[in-house]
Amino acid sequence: MIWLRALKETARAGLTIERRRLEPLVALRGAAGLALVVGVTLAMFGPVVAVSSAFGAYQAAIAIYQRSWRPRPVLALASGTSLAVSTFLGYLTASHLPLLLVLLTVWTFAAGLAWAIGTTVGVIAASNVAIMLVTITLPTSVAEAAGHAAVIAIGGGVQALLIVLFPVRRWGAQRDALADALAAEADYARRLRENPTASFDPEPLMLARSAAVVSPRQARRRPAELHGARGIAERIRPVLASLADPAVGVPVEGPERERVRELLAAAGTVLDAAAHAIREGKSVRTPRDAMDTLKKADTLALLSGPPRRAVIRLAALMDDVVETARGEGAGEETHRDRPPPHRLFLRAVKSVRAELRWASPVLRHAVRVSAVVCAGYLLGTALPLGHGYWAPMTSVMVMRPDFSQTYARSVARFGGTLVGVGVATAVVQGAHPGVRLSGALAVLCAFCVYLVLRTGYVAANVGISAYVVFLLNMGGEDAGQTVRERVVLTLLGGLIAMISYALYPAWETPRLRNRLADWLKADGRYAAAVVAHYAQPADVDNQEVRQALLAARDARIAWQDALARAIHEPVRSRGLTRAAAEAAEHALAQMGRSAMLMEAHLPEHGAVPVPAAAALADALRQDTERAAKAVRERRSLKWDGVRAALAEWEDDDTVLSGGTALLAEALEELTDALDDGVRR
Class assignment of domain 509-679? Predict the structure, then answer.
């Protein structure tokens, strides 16, 4: 059932095309750049050189679709240049099979390790290897190989130039990330009306934070409405939660609760309006009724204590959101500097070195993919089908570091490849298109790929495979290969890739306890930092609390990603059942929520200290460190220090007392969940 469910979900996702994610102007620009490169090189140098240039321009346009906050022209240039280098080095060894296998091993191993740097780099590196297997067959001399490499690099340069000359949605990715964060806050506010303890997925806020990393030059050109809104969104979330939660807010029923529901609905309306304005780059239309609701005079008379303070803060934050969406108050938040190139390089080297351990999924992927590509190349060459590079090209295109992508989404990629190869080859053999018509069909396929690349990846892979077939026909290559031969080689490459993961896996399931322990430790540090602030009130923008919150978010996302991958794996974790994992996840989410509720009302500098908070903060740090170790070693959790600190608690502050009570409940729930998992 696991396999059938995974394949069913993959097919549904791969065949679904979301219209809102289509960007026809961007696709048209990429296809126009490709057509320009192919047309010029075809007229000047002939069809074979035109094929090489087309691969460079195509790959450069593909690179700009990857999720990255780097400037798009930089991605296009980097992709074209790296492919040019790969092609030239590949040709130098193409006539000597042992040397070529050594190069393929080294190059593919490096491409596998590139996933340690990031998904964008990993995808570009894998695509370079796949395309290199084709382009090295085109030149006939070293001089021609250098020429082909040059036109490939020029193809990437043309795409980069078109991005500069014809920008589409300037700062579009950053706008979308910030708008998604505000829209997520709006949805959260509406859900809190019905469920006062609703959970919030912090991923949109994390993406918005990543999008805010810019160079000083970019910071000077960044639109005013992209300044400050992310910081405001970060402050809104805990205020909304503290206003809605009965533990620190108003009672579950009564006139106060009805008023809170009105306020939450109004906040959601304002946040949606700001998100729409930022996404479209238009002036925000202030929802007057919603703003009036947030500032009703009788609200402050109806509420008291922490809820009253939360309402005052919420109204001020909504004003800030509207002003920021209008482009006002741009100086409220300094930008986050993007590291210079040498620091980025050192960071990349550090990331790769961290994966050079036997248990690393990235290292195992690098070993796996390099072995598969070499085996596929040898088998494809040995079979009497001609142009055996179709097998290793399919393998490197479908393989990913984790099982779920290799066996689930890669099945869709593999199916799309089969359809694309079969249909395009049938067209070539049936219609016998000439050089120019083949080039036009290739450009049309590329446009379709660019259009659906971010949605409907089955359709995208149909277009990619057809694109390669039409280009090769334009260059006079592969003319004798039939549909059957190409399908057989594609099937061979896909099967080798799947078998390799079964023989040499890198399961995520056995590491779930480590991920859970990391999240527990991070949540404990976050809660301790918040509680310690009550013992020694300081500046509300305390960096210790902020850094602890970010670390807790990273650990939570890492756990959720690992759990999502483990669900599709045909192995089970010892001592951590599915039910225990879900219960533990809920407990840790509540632990983080309790800290967030207390953070919403951090005392200002000079406020009266809470002496008991210091002992509780120390106990949280020490007990969560020990508990994280116990989770890894499958032992019962002990909270003696935290229980002792709570037993001496004498503070009557509603927020702090309510928050610590929720924290204690979350720790007990976590203990019960993991003890139950061990017993089973």
Answer: mainly alpha
